[in-house]
Design brief:
The protein folds into 2 domains: about 140 residues, Rossmann fold, CATH 3.40.50.150; about 160 residues, Hnrnp arginine n-methyltransferase1. The C terminus is likely disordered. The two termini are about 35 Å apart. It contains 9 helices and 17 strands. Strands 6, 9, 10, 11, 13, 14 and 15 form a 7-stranded antiparallel beta sheet that branches. Strand 13 and strand 14 form a beta hairpin. It has about 375 residues and is of the alpha+beta class. The protein binds S-adenosylmethionine. The site of S-adenosylmethionine has 18 residues, from helix 3, helix 6 and strand 2.
């Protein structure tokens, strides 16, 4: 702790400048036109350094085990490959991990499968392929951006979805491969995705209020309101607890639907405005962000907190807002902006306080307003 008055003063000045810079970044990112000017290129691709983080995260058994143990995820991919990979196809498995999707494609009769991964897990995939007598798979330890083939492939297989759909670089990685190595008319599995951002009520026994809202037997935290954290990460929570969300206030609808066969990065909007008519009256505590992937009408993967059939290893995200009450039939006006869809810390969401007229919980911080 700085003890000299001069030290204390400079520590305070430093922290004020830091808060100002963080606030400035968020303020810019909440303004789509300004944001386009400040962050003109590759705005939905991974941040510098993300690739190294991803490579380390997937190198060990732990992450791979979680994914392989997710029975709904595995059944979705097994059915997708079974239905859509044809004997004789040339396939690339982008981010093969332990090689499972590549192996299933080979067993389905693919003529050649390129199983690529930038992480050290590739060595395990190679060993597993040999131990399971998988033929026609070529294992390549490389980042997808460095992968090239003389003859284009028929199918790109991938599982590049993060909890908030875009946060593992799916769009940039798949589009890059599509443009360079996929045959015209070739197939991307999966290709159709829906992003949801639904106003929710959190179950009372799971609700975590902002710290300054607490008063525990007279011990009042209200003075912390002036010390609201500037860090964006404070304003969203990751969870996979099926008992967290009590209900959606409105009827869920995708706020964004994409098809990787045709999507261009520039097509992703920076700002999405939408409304929800309240069918479940009561308190709103935030938004739940989740996604669905669709291969066929009867083959869908969901990470919704309210789907009992959700693929459990994915989390969903709660974007915290000030709390407010809505009556049935009220229309909630919502707005979501993203500096980069890949980086949830660059997202900004509007608290629909104007509609419900309660105290503006986020008045002093730009997050959630
Ligand atoms: C979510 S895991 C999926 C693993 C496997 N496909 C499965 O379904 O079990 C994603 C894998 O992609 C790899 N990966 C991510 N981005 C990549 C890239 N651009 N190039 C190559 N590998 C990548 C990671 O190392 C990780 O093993």
């Amino acid at each position: 702790m700085p003890s000299h008055p001069l030290q204390r003063l400079s520590a305070r000045a430093f922290s004020a400048v830091r808060r100002l810079l963080a606030g400035g970044r968020i303020w810019i990112q909440a303004r789509p036109r300004l944001s386009a000017w400040f962050y003109p290129h590759g705005r939905h691709g991974p941040k510098p350094g993300y690739s190294d983080y991803n490579r380390r995260m997937f190198a060990g058994f732990h992450e791979q085990e979680r994914m392989l143990a997710d029975k709904r995820r595995m059944a979705f991919y097994h059915a997708a490959i079974d239905r859509h990979v044809r004997p004789g196809d040339r396939v690339v498995d982008l981010g093969t991990g332990t090689g499972i999707l590549a192996a299933w494609a080979a067993l389905r009769g693919a003529a050649h499968v390129y199983a690529i991964d930038h992480s050290d897990i590739l060595a395990q995939a190679r060993a597993l392929g040999a131990a399971n007598h998988i033929e026609n798979v070529e294992y390549l330890a490389t980042h997808s951006s460095r992968f090239a083939v003389a003859e284009p492939v028929d199918v790109i297989l991938h599982e590049q979805m993060g909890d908030c759909l875009f946060d593992e670089g799916m769009v940039a990685n798949v589009i890059d491969l599509r443009e360079r190595v996929l045959k015209p008319g070739g197939l991307i599995l999966p290709s159709r995705f829906e992003l949801y951002c639904e106003p929710v009520k959190i179950n009372d026994d799971r609700l975590v209020p902002f710290i300054w809202e607490l008063n525990l037997n007279g011990y009042d935290y209200a003075c912390l309101e002036s010390r609201r954290p500037g860090a964006p990460a404070y304003y969203h929570l990751a969870s996979s607890d099926l008992n967290l969300v009590e209900h959606f206030l409105g009827r869920p609808e995708p706020v964004l639907s994409i098809d990787l066969h045709t999507l261009k990065e520039a097509d992703l909007p920076r700002e999405i405005a939408f409304t929800r008519t309240v069918v479940n009256a009561g308190r709103m505590d935030g938004y739940a962000v989740f996604f669905r992937a669709r291969v066929d009408d009867d083959l869908v993967l969901s990470t919704s907190p309210l789907d009992p059939w959700r693929a459990p290893h994915w989390g969903f995200r709660i974007l915290r807002t000030g709390r407010c009450e809505f009556a049935a039939g009220d229309v909630i006006e919502c707005r979501l902006t993203a500096g980069s869809w890949h980086d949830i810390d660059s997202w900004n969401w509007k608290t629909p306080l104007a509609t419900c007229g309660v105290r503006d919980e986020n008045k002093e911080r730009p997050r959630g307003n």
